[in-house]
Amino acid sequence: MGLRFFVWAGLQSHYRHSSYMYSKACEFLKIKQNPDLVLDVIEAYRVQKCVVNVKMFKVVLNLCREARIANEALLVLRKMPEFNIRADTTAYNVVIRLFCEKGDMDMADKLMKDMGLIDLYPDMITYVAMIKGFCNAGRLENACVLFQVMRRHGCFPNAVAYSALLEGLCRHGSTEKALEFLGEMEKEGGSCSPNVITYTSVMQSFCEKGRTMEALRIFDRMVACGCVPNRVTVITLINGLCAEGNVEEAYKLIDKVVTGGSVSDGDCYSSLVVSLFRINRLDEAEKLFRKMLASGAKPDSIACSMMIREICREGRVLDGFFLYDKIERMQHLSSIDSDIYSILLAGLCQGSHSVEAAKLARSMLEKRIRLKAPYIDRIVEHLKNSGDKEIVAQLGRIGR
Hints:
The chain is mainly α. It has 23 helices and no strands. The chain is flat and about 90 Å long.
């Protein structure tokens, strides 16, 4: 009864179910757990000789889509002729997308071919769903062939179709083919012009294959086409360049990007600091980090946390504290990892640096930062041994 009421409500002329309503209906009626419900309601309409229309079937198919029940959606689609109702492209698209998401591309492909038997034609939604499905299944050749087929059928690829294909090619490491389609997008221009996400996906694919210098040339192409890089673009290239030992190129890249103004110097250099840590160029990372602070560039939380953690790991706890203090005075600590406070405080206590420990404890109290469990006992023990009851009491308040 609940399902039939939901279907009835969806047929009203001045009302349309939202995605939220479909989601809540699936949850309330437990359609995913009881998928036969949708078939039972169709059968009830047939037995009771109810007057139904395409819109009714679409409401039921949309429920199937929300519940991700592809097989039942296919059965619903197959039942439409029993009511003398002809399915349209929208109905087929719902079922095709479900099988694409399920990974059953043979069935999705069959359904797309079945459309032609009743004089229906795939639209952009059909082709994009199929291209994504083939790419997700690793069937890149099928995706590329379909991309050409859609042109011949008068459905010219847009930026969404190109991006779906490029993303799949890049994900599976087919860099040369991705570069070929990127060139097509640039040639097409207009609404097909690649955007920053498209370019970055291709660059990332080249970087993952250890071909970052080629990725850098794609970056230059992107800028020449008037497409502005974002933070992800820059991080991708800096990581790749440093991993391959091209640190000087990373500095040159940052100069270009900062001059262009699309990404801040703080974000760029923070990424470089992190990359230098990853390739074990620790001294250079620390020099760059201190240079950032001196110039007023704002390091991000990852760079701050890694820097202080590494200094403490080397046993330079006071250096770590003074650096922390400097960063705090510049108001750059809003999102530093909370465990760094505990690591730093434990080191100060172990080194009997009571004044600095007290200052850090007060800062933790002000920020309501709790001590991490592995450090509590060690810190309290050292403070008790030093006879500093005030700090012990403060830490007790932090730990509650």
